[in-house]
Amino acid sequence: MLTIKYLPHITLLLFAAATVCTAQVDPKWEIHDRNRPVPPVVTPGTASTQEAPGKAPSDAVSLFDGKDLSKWVQKDGSPAKWKVENGYFEVVPKTGELHTKDSFGDCQLHVEFAEPNPPKGEDQDRGNSGVFLMGLYEIQVLDSYESKTYADGQAGAVYGQYPPLMNASRPPGQWQTYDIVFHGPRFDAAGKLTRPAHLTVLHNGVLIQDNVELTGPTGHHVRPAYTSTPEKLPLALQDHNHPVHYRNIWVRNL
Ligand code: MG
Questions:
Q1: pLDDT band at 19 (very low <50, low <70, confident <90, very high)
Q2: Measured in angstroms, how far is the CA atom of residue 15 from the centroid of ligand 1?
Q3: Is the predicted pLDDT of residue 145 greater than 60, yes or no?
Q4: For the chain, which residues make up each domain, given as ranges?
Q5: How far apart (Å, rounded) are the C-alpha atoms in residues 123 and 78?
Q6: What would the pLDDT profile of 44-87 be if each residue is shown by its tens digit?
Q7: How far does residue 142's CA lie from ligand 1's centre (Å)?
Q8: Ligand 1 center to residue 242 CA distance, Å?
Q9: How far apart are CA 182 and CA 124, in angstroms?
Q10: Class of the domain covering 44-253
């Protein structure tokens, strides 16, 4: 029979089952156990400045070295058509989105972008692009500096789902950063969702998405349901007809 003393444990178990992205203390190890394996060593990177991109951590996969788009292709697999110059690359309107050649799932992703300067257009028609985790889940890239649009479509929004907690945008022309922690969805053998995707995002160092649970892939005026996917798919950058700049993109597999 259930007594009141077990209720907190049951609540905790249900909570743990619902939020599988939350780490649990491993009961295998005693507290401060000196036999417990220590974490691998990583050489940290360096911070970027407006003048120059920083260095990625030693275990990161660089997706752009400032010189070429060899890690990227067009959606149809043909060579990337976006323009590379002066250590950055630029969306070439109407060429379509870029996809990474490699696939990524759970990851830490660092992206730097700069909005067109002088700014052109308003609302969603101003410096629009996007970072698509697994090619499906968009973190909006937009010029939201002193420019209004709907909340769940401004810079740093999980488009159509979660407005950013803050508007941490820098002025057009300045380099900005997204640091993203992504845990992709999981499906059972029958294709049923067993874990929704989760996202955390820092925009220019400011927390703007705090472990939000995604409703499914990104849509426009719709929130499509999840459909079963592999655990890893290519990352994508959106062509929304605006010449947004990107540089210093790296990813760490989790
Ligand atoms: Mg967009």
A1: very low
A2: 33
A3: yes
A4: 44-253
A5: 32
A6: 999 999 999 999 999 999 999 899 999 999 999 999 999 999 99
A7: 7
A8: 10
A9: 25
A10: mainly beta
